[in-house]
Amino acid sequence: MDEATRLQYLQAMGIDVWVPRHQADSEPMATETSPTDSHHAWTDLQHQVSQCHACELCKTRTQTVFGVGNHHATWLLIGEAPGQNEDLQGEPFVGKAGQLLNEMLRAIGLDREQVYIANMLKCRPPNNRDPQADEVAACNGFLQQQIALLQPKIILAVGRIAAQNLLKTQQPLSRLRGTQHQLDGIPLVVVHHPAYLLRSLTEKAKAWEDLQFAWSIYQTV
Ligand code: URA
What we know:
Layout: H1 3-12, H2 21-25, H3 35-50, E1 68-69, E2 75-79, H4 84-89, H5 96-107, E3 116-119, H6 133-150, E4 154-158, H7 160-167, H8 173-176, E5 181-183, E6 186-191, H9 201-218
Parallel strand pairs: 2-3, 2-4, 4-6
Antiparallel strand pairs: 1-3, 5-6
Helix pairs in contact: 3-6
Residues 79-83, 86, 92-93, 97, 119, 158-159 line the site of uracil.
């Protein structure tokens, strides 16, 4: 396999490829942001999130849950909001749903470390209630900045609430899955929330179909 094809395969799998500086210099830059600028931008944004008091959820959170993963990831997964475990540990999808999400990713050959995982809301709603419109609006700027910094090739909206809010629709998940949507020009695919995997074999099969569909879309971008 020649070098260019090898790099293409690795990139398609979302694996970072480091090339010597002289080689990188001879190729056009994908963006004008240097790695140091980008690192600062992520750190600044995380700091802003940690200080946020834009909505009432700041009063009940243990800590903010910024997001986690590879800053060069081509896959961005967006869930709804932190739950109890996430609020305690400061990382999205670390509870039971998180373990299942990791399994879902592995099913399509992706490791958690290769993707970036965030939630719409950075603070836990009390008793895991659904996010309110004003909370989503208050937090949206942070998510938009994460998307702008990452520039993913594909976004997975994880679960109905994330999908409906991101796509600004009330359509049920059954109508939203299996279709390629766009979020600011980035392909977006709706997948079942990992909690679905626990319910029944039929739901498991649907979640698997969602992932296969996402993978097929990714291969076209
Ligand atoms: N469910 C979500 O949508 N996000 C999390 O971080 C955990 C569970």
